[in-house]
Amino acid sequence: MKSINPVRPSPIAGHWYSSNPAQLREEIEGYLNSAKLPELKGDLVGLIAPHAGYFYSGPTAGYAYHALMGMQYDLCVIVSPLHDYLPYPLLSSAHDEYATPLGNVEVDQDILNEFNQQLADASLTPAQRIANDREHSLEIQLPFLQTALAGSFQLLPLMVRSAEPAYLQQVGTLLANLIRGKKVLLVASTDLSHFYDEPTANALDRVMLQRMCDLSPEGVLLAEADQVGFACGSGAVALVLWTAKSLGANQVTLLHHSTSARASQDTSSVVGYGALAITRQEAV
Question: Nearest to residue 46, comparing CAs of 137, 140, 112, 145?
Answer without folding.
Answer: 145
